[in-house]
Please model this.
Amino acid sequence: MNDFFDNDDDIYDGNQHTPLRKDAFKLSTDEKVQKIEGLFSEIMETLGLDMTDDSLKDSPKRVAKMYVNEIFGGLLPENKPGISTFKNQYKYRQMLVEKDITVYSFCEHHFLPIIGKAHVAYISNGKVIGLSKINRIVDYYAKRPQVQERLTMQIVGAMKEALGTKDVACIIDARHLCVNCRGIKDTASSTITAELSGIFRTNPITRQEFLHYVGSHAKLD
Model:
C-alpha cells in the first residue's frame, strides 16, 4: 500500500498532497471501522448520552462505517477511479466545460461539511475523457478531510495527469458549515477557489471564456 505515496497523483507540485502518515494503511477497512466505533462510543458517553437507548446504541457503528466507507472513502486508494481516455478522433480543439458538479466534502479543521459546486474545464491535446470520469475525480478527492484550496488543486492535478495536458482549470464555489453554523455563524457567505493551468493561466481570452461559461465575472490573475 505504500505505493499510494509514491505513485498517487496527490503528489503534485509538492503542495497538494493529503497529509497522511506512512502507516495510514496498516489497518484494514474492517479494523478501522471497529476502532472508530469504539472511539465514537466513548465520545457519545462522554457527552452524557445513554448508550442503552434503542435510538443511540447502534450509532457508533453507523458513524464508523460512514466515516471509513462513505464520507472519507477518498482516503482509501482502492477507491481511486480508473480514468480511461480516448483518442480525440473528431479533432475537437475547443474548451470542454463540465459545470455544476456537486461537491460534498468535510473541513479538516472542524470536520463539518463543505457543500458546493465545481466547474472543471480542459482543452484536449489529443485525448478526451468520459464526462462521468470528471465527476468521479471530483467526488474522490472531495471524500477526504479537506481544505478547499487543496481540493481544487488535486482535481486539476488528476485531470492533467489523466489527459497529458497542462490546459486544465477548476473553480469551486462552496459553503463551509464551520462558518455557517458555528463561530461567526454567517449563513450567507460562500468561498470561491480557482486553479488555472496552461493556457487558462497564460491566455486572458481563454480565461475569460471559461469564466463566462461557468457564470463567474471574477477577475482571476
Q: What stands out?
A: DSSP finds eight helices and seven strands in the chain. The mean pLDDT is 91.
